[in-house]
Amino acid sequence: MPPKTSRTYTHPDLNEVPLAAAMQALADPSRVAIVRTLMADGGRELACNEFDLCQSKATISHHFDILREAGIIHTRTEGRRCLSKVRQGELEKRFPGLLKLVLAEEAATPAKA
Amino acid sequence: MPPKTSRTYTHPDLNEVPLAAAMQALADPSRVAIVRTLMADGGRELACNEFDLCQSKATISHHFDILREAGIIHTRTEGRRCLSKVRQGELEKRFPGLLKLVLAEEAATPAKA
DNA sequence: TCGATTGTTTGATGATTGTCGAACCAAAAC
DNA sequence: GTTTTGGTTCGACAATCATCAAACAATCGA
Predict the structure, then answer these.
(1) Which of B27, B28, B48 is nearest to B37 (CA)?
(2) Does residue B18 sit at the A interface (CB-CB below 8 Å)?
């Protein structure tokens, strides 16, 4: 039986998302860490509490909001968990190479960053 | 005879610039407009007052600072003008595809952006 | 039904960012 | 030498952003 009032998330049409919004979302270290963790092993779906972020639950929730609103991740609820994954295909189509840049940067990041 | 104390600008080694800094710099509409104007006709060098930005001189100076510090543009003085151009080659090498994304976005920008 | 878990929302705080006018500096034009 | 022009710096302000504690909501487990 479907849940009564379970959370549903709205996801923008990526064609409606400006590049600046995606860049703004990916300019924050915490959000980049989220995306990289999701993209490990080719891409997977993870729940909010499966990240090693050392931040409050409110902050993490906030960051997932921003990534969702920028069209970078897709989120669905399963029981009391919310599961998110990167919208790889659509993202690549809308912003070719952006995700690759972000993933490549992990290896290239200067020590002081 | 070389000028006494003419402005000289320092430019970061692009290998020292994190992707997040470049993205942050390019997430602002004014700075993106600057980059696009510089890149029109394949790339050119322009002075600060050759942009149609409708902002105060202090604000424009501020935006050029950020682009320079993010390693996106190179600036030199010529008389009382400062001339800037996009560091295309180095930028493409360090962040492959980033500039292309920014330039492609102009055509693709949703009406409401 | 109650307790635990996952996640959201609210309101607040501090930091960061974009903006500007005014004052200032350097070079060119007169 | 003075005026004009291009650009920088300073200090201030408003907006935005990242952060959190506390309270709350929905679901699962006992």
Answers:
(1) B48
(2) yes
How distant is C1' of D24 from CA of A77, in Å? Answer: 18
Tell me the pLDDT band of B113, cut-offs 50, 70 and 90: very low
Structural domains in chain A, CATH included, are 14-104 (1.10.10.10)
The predicted structure's pLDDT at residue B72? 97
Q: Any residues with CB less than 8 A from the CB of A113 and at least 6 apart, and which?
A: B18, B20
- Expressed in percent and rounded to 5, the helix, strand and coil fractions of chain A are 50, 10, 35
Inform me whether the C-beta atom of residue B110 falls under 8 Å from chain A C-beta atoms.
Answer: yes
Q: Which residue has the higher pLDDT, B15 or A112?
A: B15
Whether the Cβ atoms of residue A101 and residue B98 lie closer than 8 Å to each other: yes
Whole-prediction pTM? 0.89
- Chain A residues in contact with B95 by the CB 8 A cut-off are 101
Count the helix, strand and coil residues of chain B and give each as a percent rounded to the nearest 5. Answer: 50, 10, 35
Per-residue pLDDT, A8: 82
CA dist B57 and B54 (Å) reads: 9
